[in-house]
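[Solved] Which block belongs to which protein?

Original post:
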Amino acid sequence: MEIKVHDIIKFSNVDKLEHFTAVPEWVLNTAAASNYGVVRRMPISNKLIPIGLRGESREQRFGTYIHEENIVEVITPNSLVMCIDEFEKRIYYPTLKGLRDEFSKLNLSWGPTGSIGFEMATNINVTSMKSDIDISLYIESIDEELLKEVGRFIKTLDKQIDVQVEIPIIGAFLLNDYIRNYETGFIIRTPFGPQLCSIQDRKIKVLAVN
């Protein structure tokens, strides 16, 4: 079973969680937390998947684990692109549709994450008028011109879009951070922590480990 960061994990009930600390009371009383978790960017060992549970406010977040054998379903951000039209009455629909149309032209793999991705995956209403639009963009290696083209398109939209670029094995970085600082230093998030990197001679060079 291939499981990646930002995937949404469905499990039968909170009794299946492999928690190492006491489970907060709100987890037991929140629909969003009782059956779903979002995969965190951490190493996976012994088939224990690191997930984060969300409550009804930003303060209600709980990091825990679920064993692979207790996973009922894995919902990927990519798969949510196929059902965007099911959410045409939501405020974020026009933006997601615009992203879908443009990224289709560029043959890019992507998907909504954050609260919008969670809502689409679970049909649990967790978004508001102020919800950010977070997406993950999946590429095999850094393509400077492609990333700049994506950045230019994002600026034409009337909503703030936070784009996280995911590269296999390497990790992820924020598109805006990369475009502004790719020569001087941008942060790549890895399962083992953030690293300050730059692009030199079309290659990633690690400058510092935080």
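(Second protein starts here: sequence line, then its structure tokens.)
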Amino acid sequence: MAEKTPEEMREAVLAIREKMAAAAREAGRDPDEIQLCAACKTRTAETVAASAALPIDVFGENHVQELCANSDAGAYCGKPSHFIGHLQTNKIKKVLGRASLIQSVGSEHLLTAIEKEAAKAGIVQNVLLEVNIGGEESKSGVSPEALWPLLDAAAAQEHIRVKGLMAIPPVNDDDAQNRRYLAAVHDLFVKAGERGYSNVEMQTLSMGMSGDYENAIREGATLVRIGTAIYGERDYRKR
């Protein structure tokens, strides 16, 4: 599957929106409460700008240099951008002020570094805490058990506001197992919200990608991150 044309992107987004709405209704939820995040890794500013005219709520960037380039080029056309990839501490300064939400905070080390840079900049940065629900060594994020000390640490920061959780469940052809992982993340999301911290507001549960976003919505996701199904296959030779 090659990279999609603008018309193919339009058709793809409309089809995704229909599936999102159907999954929401199946779960007794309001389709309007679920956001579509376009994961635009490796896409050109022109492609991102073309997709911004479509019913996409927010753009998700995996790489700091691409966030900077697309932001500076005005490719998001006024729509918000989130940082969804692995964030190195030496690049936090470039993300602050560009990404309205950092979705991938999965360690106290990163949390502390964001707090330090946000304090210097005089801003409050919204974040999601990343949970490694499958315990995979290849993925970042904290274990379900380690979420609680990370949440405690985040709640103590003056320049950070926790807005929810993010997770990438293991790739799994077993539909039932996939839903168990997603349901487990939702359970953590609910429990985190019950802790009653003044600067923790569980608004966003970011989970579900091109292969499992319908299941994610059925299990409580409020934001799904979709790249390939919108844009087509990535051409990594461009980077």
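Accepted answer:
You had them paired correctly. Confirming on the second one: The radius of gyration is 17 Å.
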